[in-house]
Structures are given as structure tokens and as C-alpha cells.
Write a structure and sequence with these properties.
The protein is of the alpha+beta class and 120 residues long. It has a single domain, classed as 3-Layer(aba) Sandwich (Glutaredoxin), CATH 3.40.30. The chain has 2 helices and 4 strands. A 4-stranded mixed beta sheet has the order 2-1-3-4, covered by helices on one side. A hairpin with a 3-residue loop joins β3 and β4. It is globular and about 40 Å long.
Length: 120
């Protein structure tokens, strides 16, 4: 069984178009997940960091939303443009991206770094 240092769960839940809470899918979460997977693969980290599809994370108003485990760091309003910073700062460097953190969560601790296995 593969061992992953981190799992990134990206909500791809879809609700009715008129639902008052909205949904992450309409906020670009499927494309966000696909781009994250592509970027992790491109820099050689797809074997140590896993990007997964998640059902509803119950943070619809914060979408596109994602959570990083094992640290339980929740991000909201994430776009594809945020991915390079999120990957470099948090997923590799161990420093969560403060501007993307969802409100009302404890401040994240300094996290361990991941040795990048970059492709030549």
C-alpha cells in the first residue's frame, strides 16, 4: 500500500443550481482538483502527496474548498491561480497559506516539509 505524506481532499459536490448555499463544483473545484493533480505529477510529488476528490465538506459558502491531512488545514475560495503558492508553501514547505485559510479554525502549527522528488 502506498504511503502518502499528505492527502488533499478537494470538494467536488454539486447541488441544485438554485440551492442557497451553492456548491463547490460550480466554483471550479473539478478543474481545481485536476490542475492540482497535474502540478503535483509535473514536479514529481504525486507519489508522496495525494490529491483526492471529496464529496460535500459542508463548507459550500467557502468553495471551492479543500482540506489537507494529516494536519486538518481547511482552505476556502481556492482557485487554480493559488495552486503554485499552496504547493510551495504548504505542501512542500510546511507553511499553510494564511490568506486562504477558512475562518474559525485554530491556527495551524508549523508543519513538516516534504523532500521534493523533482523530475530531471
Amino acid at each position: 500500500m502506498p504511503h502518502f505524506e499528505r492527502h488533499v481532499f478537494v470538494c467536488t459536490n454539486e447541488r441544485a443550481a438554485d440551492h442557497p448555499r451553492g456548491d463547490c463544483k460550480r466554483k471550479g473545484s473539478v478543474e481545481l482538483r485536476d490542475a492540482l493533480k497535474k502540478q503535483l505529477s509535473k514536479i514529481g510529488l504525486s507519489k508522496s502527496i495525494r490529491a483526492n476528490t471529496a464529496g460535500c465538506l459542508d463548507q459550500c459558502e467557502q468553495g471551492a474548498s479543500m482540506v489537507v491531512y494529516p494536519e486538518q488545514v481547511w482552505y476556502g475560495h481556492v482557485t487554480e491561480a493559488d495552486l503554485p503558492e499552496l504547493i510551495a508553501s504548504h505542501l512542500i514547505g510546511g507553511v499553510p497559506v494564511a490568506r486562504l485559510l477558512m475562518p474559525d479554525q485554530p491556527p495551524p502549527p508549523r508543519l513538516p516539509t516534504i523532500e521534493a522528488e523533482r523530475k530531471p
